[in-house]
Design a protein that fits this description.
The protein is an all-alpha fold. It has eleven helices and no strands. It has two domains: 149 residues, Ferritin (Up-down Bundle), CATH 1.20.1260; 150 residues, no CATH class. α6 runs antiparallel to α10 and α7 runs antiparallel to α8. The protein is elongated and about 95 Å long.
């Protein structure tokens, strides 16, 4: 009855006896409780009120576990077989802890709702596979409890995270996203797009060689990306400023810098000079307007001011590059 699983094979759910079904339920409740606690720890800093919700949900899962252990002890004794979700074919899987980090608050809430729905489905199926009256009643009760956890979560949310708190948490999360990703990424995109305009178009008009122009644009873009990335990561560790991980900020800045330059360097892979130049100019126009849009949306810069700063300034740099190349 308590056979151990061998090799990489998985058991079918139908092959489990009642002791194994209870053991599987116990291990599942333990894992869900641990996942909710990991959510709570992840939210402690950015959303402490929502963290309390998940701690309460973890306590509910622990209560379910204790009920299941009590039932197992009454029927089968003290030795609970080691059976987990991964041992059962077709059983729902939970994401490992290392994939849970850096999830948004709404994603975590959606994941919790999915967990409760899956648990309710398991208990309903498990209740159909047992004949003992007390065990069947317990599994049925747990199915109803898990099904009602969505309502429990909402009630706990109202208790610990009312609407005004959720709005504040959402604003904090958005502000952190802007500081960690948008701000350094936007700075990189602006630098990569504008600072490479003059050398790329100067090289294009001076040589009228599309391949050489592309190589100059590629080297300028990659070099600027590496420089911007290291500068962003090195100058602020984020601990006092609250701007987040220096690695994330460095990657955002470096990648967007390279993308900004490569946008108008890649068209010079087209062999025909004027075709490549026209395409590059169109790309520059799109880049500059995209930067103005991002500034307006995330940095709350008035749109006309953003257009003047970016589009007008970028156009001057572009004109300078063309004039120098024709000089």
């Amino acid at each position: 009855m308590f056979e151990l699983f061998r090799g990489q094979g998985r058991r079918s759910f139908a092959s489990l006896d009642e002791a194994e079904i209870l053991a599987l339920a116990i291990s599942s409740e333990e894992e869900d409780a641990r996942i909710y606690l990991s959510y709570a720890r992840a939210l402690d800093a950015q959303a402490p009120d929502s963290a309390k919700v998940f701690r309460d949900m973890a306590e509910v899962e622990q209560a379910h576990r204790n009920m299941l252990i009590s039932q197992f002890r009454q029927r089968f004794g003290e030795e609970i077989p080691l059976i987990r979700r991964e041992h059962v074919r077709g059983f729902y899987q939970r994401r490992p802890d290392w994939l849970m980090t850096n999830l948004s608050l709404e994603t975590i809430r959606a994941q919790a709702e999915l967990m409760e729905e899956q648990a309710a489905r398991f208990y309903r199926e498990a209740a159909r596979h047992v004949t003992d009256a007390s065990t069947r009643q317990l599994l049925g009760d747990l199915a109803l409890a898990e099904q009602g956890h969505g309502e429990i979560a909402r009630m706990l949310g109202d208790k610990h995270a009312p609407e005004e708190v959720r709005q504040e948490e959402a604003a904090t999360e958005r502000r952190q996203f802007i500081l960690t990703y948008v701000q350094p990424g936007l700075a990189g995109l602006m630098d990569g797009s504008v600072s490479t305009l003059a050398p790329i178009f100067a090289a294009a008009f001076a040589t009228q060689d599309t391949w050489q122009t592309f190589l100059i644009g590629l080297s300028a873009s990659v070099g600027a990306g590496i420089s911007m990335g290291f500068t962003e990561a090195a100058h602020d560790d984020g601990k006092l400023s609250g701007r987040g991980s220096p690695l994330k900020r460095g990657l955002a800045s470096g990648i967007m810098t390279a993308v900004g330059g490569l946008g108008h360097a890649l068209p010079y892979l087209i062999p025909h000079f004027w075709t490549a130049t026209i395409v590059a100019a169109i790309v520059v126009f799109i880049e500059l307007w995209a930067i103005a849009f991002i500034q307006n949306k995330y940095m709350e810069t008035p749109f006309l001011r953003a257009v003047f700063q970016v589009v007008f300034g970028g156009s001057l740099v572009l004109a300078a590059g063309i004039l120098i190349g024709n000089g």
